[in-house]
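Reading a protein record of the kind used here takes little practice once its layout is understood. Each number in the token line that follows is a code from a learned vocabulary of backbone shapes. One such record is shown here in full, so that the layout can be seen directly:
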Amino acid sequence: MSRTRSTGNHGEQLAANLLEAKGFVIAERNFRHRRAEVDLIVRQDKLLVFVEVKTRSGTDFGEPETFVTPNQRRLIHSAADAYIHQTDWLHDIRFDIIAITLGHPPDVLHIEDAFY
């Protein structure tokens, strides 16, 4: 496994742990629809949250959350629409970013309602 993929997997697990500690239930990991992928889809009561996880080993090139591009947001929206239709979800949704900078301990930032 490449170092980049290993870093990403580690970050996704940290994000999943954080969300579970906040009372969310993991509905899907790495949900794919066509060219789009959503890292985590979580539920809490009548709220469905689509989560993009950005993990970096440092901030030399910027904060992790700044790497979610407009095109990536469009792809996430497309995957979210597909998931909503597949599951007949009829309640609220939200799009979050979890930005992780690895270290000891890692810096984890949960940005709710990060984009629409």
Notes: The chain has two helices and five strands. The helical segments are 3-21, 70-87.
